[in-house]
Amino acid sequence: MGLTREVAEWIARTSIDDANEAVVQAARSAILDTVAVILAGAEEPVTRIVAATVAEDAASPAADRLGARLRTSMEAAAFVNGVSGHALDYDDVNRSAIGHPSVVVFPAALAAAQATGASGRRLLEAYTLGVEVMTKLGRAMRTAHYRTGWHATSTLGALGAAMAAGKLFRLEPEPLQHALAIAASTASGSRQNFGTMTKPFHPGHAARCGVLAARLAQKGMTGDTGILEAPLGYFALFSYGEARIDGVGETLGRPYDVVSPGMNVKRYPCCYATHRAADAVLDIVREYELRAAEVESADVIVPPGGLAAVTRDRPRTGLEGKFSLPYVVAAAILDGRVALETFTDEMVRRPEAQALLRRVRPVEDPSIPVEFNAIEEGYVVVRVRRRNGPGSEVLERRVDHPRGAPQNPLSRDELHDKFRDCSRQVLPREQSERALALLTSIQDLPHLDDLVAALVPPDET
Question: Of 49, 114, 214, 356, which has the fewest Cβ atoms less than 10 A away?
Fold first, then answer.
């Protein structure tokens, strides 16, 4: 049996009822965090552009945009919510995928769940299985895919989204294979677009493509049923000979990736490759009461490959600032925090920020051990040279696991506070609290109507 068939059969036969409570709890927390960041990104320019374009099509209403009033098709709702969830780069990260699973899979699953009248438990199930496929295929892909410029969130995400939607459509193994084949031919996304509006377009596009692939397969459209393992198939095209697909089918759900290695919840709304450095700098600032005027220079030592995602050393916009290690370090020193408002155009262009970031030097150290994912493995060291009278001193911090990683998780209260902070711009406080309560018991909801209603702001008219 080929891998494509193994994946399809696993999706068709697997139930969340067979998983342990740790899986349900982890998936529920990931969904809560993903909804939070979708709401936070609802008013961002890229989300508004995509939503306005979708609204022009007047599609048959089947699913909802979160954080604003727009009911549209399954594909369009998945598209807009995927863009919104990644607009601030505040969504979770997974080591296996070298990317962001939830922001692709959840919007696709939510749209399909609404259209099919699914329960909260079936939504949670589809999300969990879709993430599992995306992450296990990501680990099999290895690293050449990402190194050569593909955005794995999008390329792998289309497959995970297709399986989540296919599960909700109750597809049998053969149409699920066709859905994988259709989704594989839509896989795309260039890392050159990091720091632009097109980066958040990627997960929205992948979510939309996954839903469409499942719908087309449901209606009888076919594709190559060995698309993953075939000589000209998905891994042959994208892995550059690095893929290790033997035995992948046996790893599905053993354990689930939402539990191990787990999902990294972001404490800061910027590229995850900056988070360990941000933690280190903020610790130094707090302990030594460091001021920007005292900083002579700052070295940020990262594992080999740790700079691949942070491509904007001299940012001029808020979006570029999210992918600039020098700017994140400079902002942390200047402001003593890294928050949503850190990444406006005005904040990035501050003369004091532009001057300070030029004194920050990111360096890859080949001696730091990395097996698979440089953004999460090894460690990051920040060394700040502080002017001290006629001389100087070096302030140093090492961070292995950033706040929000499975090894250093946010508390329940911190996760809920993040939800409240993200939702406050688009939902009244009482409505936000109702949504939070429903999300924390999503597995018990008989339908999703009340939850979605709580996540859409009241009609201003």
Answer: 49
Tokens 């879709």 map to which residue?
Answer: 130
Contacts for 385 with CB less than 8 Å, ≥ 6 apart: 295, 296, 297, 298, 392, 393, 394
What is the arithmetic mean of pLDDT over 75-83? 98
Three-class SS string for 57-107?
A: CCCCCCEECCCCCCEECHHHHHHHHHHHHHCCCCCCEECCCCECCHHHHHH
Closest by alpha carbon to 183, among 221, 152, 214? 214
256/276 same-domain check: no
Q: Are residues 202 and 285 in the same domain?
A: no
Claim to verify: residue 233 and residue 334 sit in the same structural domain? no
Assess whether 240 and 361 both reside in one domain. no
Closest residue by Cα to residue 196 from 89, 347, 319, 86: 319
Q: Is residue 429 part of a domain?
A: no
Helix/strand/coil percent split, the chain, to 5: 55, 10, 35
Place of tokens 């698309």: 227
> Which of helix, strand or coil describes residue 56?
helix
Q: What is the DSSP letter of 364?
A: E
CATH number where 394 lies? 3.30.1330.120
Percent of the chain scoring above 70 in pLDDT:
99
Contact 256/125 with Cβ under 8 angstroms? no
Cα separation of the two ends of the chain: 57
Residues 396, 273: contact at Cβ < 8 Å? no
Q: What percent of the chain has pLDDT over 90?
A: 95
**Whether residue 40 is found in the same domain as residue 187:** yes
Count of domains for the chain: 2
Q: Are residues 116 and 150 in the same domain?
A: yes
Average model confidence (pLDDT) for the chain? 96
Residue 58 has pLDDT above 90, yes or no: no
